[in-house]
User: Which sequence fits this backbone?
């Protein structure tokens, strides 16, 4: 429901864990530009 709001709210601390599974552990957290691209790629499912 308010997922987009949560992301835009600045909950960046939960993004790394939410995006990085055990395999992506060594990888750095996704940058904001990447998140914006993904967000623009898929329409917000607020409905």
Assistant:
């Amino acid at each position: 429901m308010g997922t987009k709001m949560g992301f835009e709210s600045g909950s960046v601390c939960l993004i790394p864990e939410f995006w990085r599974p055990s395999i992506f552990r060594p990888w750095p957290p996704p940058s904001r530009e990447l998140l914006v691209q993904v967000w623009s790629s898929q329409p917000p499912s607020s409905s």
Summary: The radius of gyration is 11 Å. The chain has one domain: 3-41. The mean pLDDT is 59. The chain is about 50% helix and 0% strand.
